[in-house]
């Protein structure tokens, strides 16, 4: 008897879980699913759902990162991909070359003007197609401890030469402090710095790719940092470790080159330093120029699996260009919008709480964002990034050999593309 | 099932009690203290327990204490962390915990049933192809389940079952290791004579399995259940590929999304650490609960040899 009871119990549970899988109401509305990771995205999408009863969008919250790209590609191969996905700029070539993201150039005609050409070029991949719409961007800025800069009589460096001088001056004033660190555990920052110097790591030219990581721009940036690291003017320990948090929190590192989203990270990493940081434009290679790189940022892409491409594209346009949607994205999800109109909008009038001491924070950012250099991504960014971690991790540890590390990163990336069957030159 | 186990214990205990009487005197030699093995084992224990201690202590730290105070100094924010976790998106953490319990509990139970049937059949019936099946199973034991996740996803997509709870349950039902273990255990614990005697008395095969073999195999099946439970509880890749709706996520996946929210928001370290600590508690409870079955396992094993 007891066994029968158990069996019935199990059978009931199984049926219940099976039935739990389906249950969409059939009221004639178009239903779209959207994989996104930005916190609070459900609330922003709710605004759309209220105004558009015919097109209902469901957010399925995902974890951001390279794993999501793999998951999306797998789902697309099985024909079960969602209608819309949030994708980082550097993931777009991977998604496009796997035929995951649909070309929505016909559906989004005229939207181009809402974005800067450098941002727009990242979603067209230099073609006539449009593979996604830009959502947020991460222009690089120079974040520094304003109180300590004043205390030590340092001025904010406007060029990279001045940056090196500042690092040297600080070490002479207090040998226990460093200006910042050269971190070899996140290639995104190095990519941004190389973009500022003019790097185009992946480019396409009539049916073939060109990999140019080890070019003049890359060598300039890596040689600059090698000198700083070799002379111990900056630290060589990675970012995002407890030790790094502590160094920031105790003022043993007094500056950080980072994306516009840095205040949120600093709030966790260095909670005791609230109200002492300020942001300035990135130091320049040419005095008086206004060029920066980008670190982070994402897009909204429509998949080829979607049976409602027009509706999905319409939603993507609304999400990333409509003033109401952008305000909600800024306030709820905490993103820095890619649409230029929103960068000077009402929603960004007040600085982030951690930088409340710098009321004009977003004005500075908007000026910097105008000079964001175009980024050029290829289909194997993850390989290049892990090659960076390996090669530069070892070089930073030895405080030497950056030139070889850059060459190794180039070679690994090139070999991988060659092995995957891409037509590629270097 | 539980009515049978005391019987088993009595059976097992009586010869076991008899043995020390016959050779007990000689066996009781004073043990030498061996410093080297003891030190090695202590080191091993430290190696295993240190991360657990880290999680337990880090979970007590408030957000601003996490990276700024001494690593093994307890903080002051445990209660706050738990209530933050409870409040995060209307307590979705508890939903993940329920999901994990469902996947691991039901999955391990069903997989245990499949293993018991399969192991029993392989151990006690002679039929053509038996060794081939067993060898294929052995090969399956050597194959890490991780590499099957993507093919399983593609298969389940064919029948439109992805992003459902069944998608996580079905692939874990068949555990080659579980069947292997059940076969080995059945071969040792269920004497062929007993089965033969039951047949002579006119018992049907199902009744032999249910009333005679199953109670004898119980300690082994508890082991299979525990292995599967822990494996499913800690499983990441399979649910990661199968599920896209975070209402159906197990704990591993839920905590992963908390950690990776994109660069615009800082990772919710304190929530993840507290969540990880709470996620271990059910496993510890389960082990404490099932411990008595395991000692029984050792006891009956000693009698058989």
From TrEMBL, chain A:
Coiled coil: none annotated. InterPro entries: Bact_solute-bd_prot1, SBP. Keywords: Cell membrane, Lipoprotein, Membrane, Palmitate, Signal. Residues 1-20 form the signal peptide. It comes from the Bacteria. SUPFAM superfamilies: Periplasmic binding protein-like II (SSF53850). This is Extracellular solute-binding protein. It comes from Streptomyces triticirhizae.
Automatic annotation (TrEMBL), chain B:
The keyword Kinase does not apply. Residues 1-29 are annotated as: Disordered. It is found in: Cell membrane. It is a multi-pass membrane protein. PROSITE patterns: ABC_TM1 (PS50928). One of its GO terms (biological process) is transmembrane transport. Residues 97-290 form the ABC transmembrane type-1 domain. It holds the Pfam family BPD_transp_1. One of its GO terms (cellular component) is plasma membrane. The chain crosses the membrane at residues 38-59, 101-125, 132-154, 166-190, 211-233, 267-290. The keyword Lyase does not apply. It comes from the Bacteria. Keywords: Cell membrane, Membrane, Transmembrane, Transmembrane helix, Transport. PANTHER family: ABC TRANSPORTER PERMEASE PROTEIN MG189-RELATED (PTHR43744:SF12), ABC TRANSPORTER PERMEASE PROTEIN MG189-RELATED-RELATED (PTHR43744). Belongs to the binding-protein-dependent transport system permease family. This is Carbohydrate ABC transporter permease.
